[in-house]
Design a protein that fits this description.
Layout lengths: L6 E4 L2 H6 L2 E5 L11 H15 L4 E6 L4 H12 L3 E7 L9 H8 L3 E5 L1 H4 L2 H8 L6 E3 L7 H8 L11 E6 L3 H12 L5 E6 L7 H8 L6 E4 L12 H10 L12 H13 L8 E5 L8
Parallel strand pairs: 2-10, 3-4, 3-6, 4-5, 7-8, 7-10, 8-9
Antiparallel strand pairs: 1-2
The site of pyridoxal-5'-phosphate has 19 residues, from helix 2, helix 3, strand 7 and helix 8.
Length: 287
């Protein structure tokens, strides 16, 4: 998989008013199924699984999880088996496009009730106690190896930005960006927009993934109702934005992140002449 995705400029009246330059790094173009950051996150996890001679990737996600799909694809590509535990015992594997793609790619889908789903490590331990060839990958790929994979995107940047932004689910992508910036000794701040409600706990998770990094900030007030929820402000903003740009956005991750960034820009949170790079983390899954 080739990661070096293109960077394009975004033009918008709010940006010229506030004298702010905005670019977007099109990680959504990396691959049609392995959405944006998910490919980066899986890079070292896959290498680790293969090096340990594992044969089955076991992972976890919601019914619309881009991570499940990315894992299904990566497993197939590397000749590995894949098992995906899906949150909600009522979920039918054929019920939506994401899970259908997973099945087509050979992933075994195992729906699991929401309560048991909370403890992924114990699901893994109970079901794979006698299977030394199974490899645990946490929900969303969340891990130090995943953050390491993401951190490498900093090496692809052609210039210095004041801020690099992304949407946050588990916070792994933000942690990776912060680590990459710190390692490259750049003065850039990493900004994350949490897409779930009550996401303040993510700060601890990010601190664990990116110890010794203080070059990041997480915004938790732009969830628009919660994970995979939207409100009329978000949808109206996305519609309006589409008049200025043909950048594909969806309301779960990247739409929310851009919406939040534009609210922050409008309310004067950035200095004039800020140079902001948004990472388009993907999430546009073909039907
Ligand atoms: C998974 C995902 C994210 C969240 O990434 P984390 O590393 O879990 O914070 C952001 N955007 C898209 C499109 C995703 O699929």
């Amino acid at each position: 998989m080739l990661f070096n995705s293109p960077i394009q400029t975004i033009d918008h009246p709010v940006l010229s008013e506030q004298e702010i330059a905005l670019w977007v790094k099109r990680d959504d173009l990396i691959h049609p199924f392995v959405s944006g950051n998910k490919g980066r996150k899986l890079k070292y996890l896959l290498a680790d699984a293969i090096q340990q001679q594992k044969t089955t990737l076991v992972t976890f996600g919601g019914a619309y999880s881009n991570h499940l799909l990315a894992t299904a694809f990566a497993a197939k590509e590397h000749g590995l088996q894949a098992i995906g535990y899906v949150r909600g015992e009522e979920i039918q594997a054929s019920s939506n496009a994401v899970l259908k793609h997973c099945l087509d790619l050979g992933m075994e889908i195992r729906p699991i009730d929401r309560n048991s789903y909370r403890n992924k490590q114990s699901i893994f331990e109970e079901n794979f106690r006698d299977d030394a060839r199974a490899y645990f990958i946490d929900e969303g790929g969340c891990s130090e190896l995943a953050a390491k994979g993401v951190s490498e995107l900093i090496g692809e940047l052609p210039e210095v930005y004041s801020h690099v932004c992304c949407a946050c689910g588990t916070g792994t992508t933000l942690a990776g960006i912060a680590m990459g910036l710190q390692k490259a000794k750049l003065p850039t701040q990493a900004l994350g927009i949490a897409v779930l409600k009550g996401a303040d706990f993510l700060r601890d998770d990010i601190r664990k993934l990116a110890p010794n990094c203080s070059n990041w900030q997480l915004f938790t007030e732009y969830h628009c109702g919660g994970y995979a929820q939207s409100n009329t402000d978000l949808l109206a903003w996305m519609k309006d934005f589409s008049r200025y740009s043909d950048l594909p956005l969806e309301p779960v991750y990247t739409g929310k992140a851009f919406y939040a960034l534009f609210q922050l820009i409008k309310n004067g949170s950035f200095l004039k002449n800020s140079r902001i790079l948004m990472i388009h983390t993907g999430g546009i899954i073909p039907a």
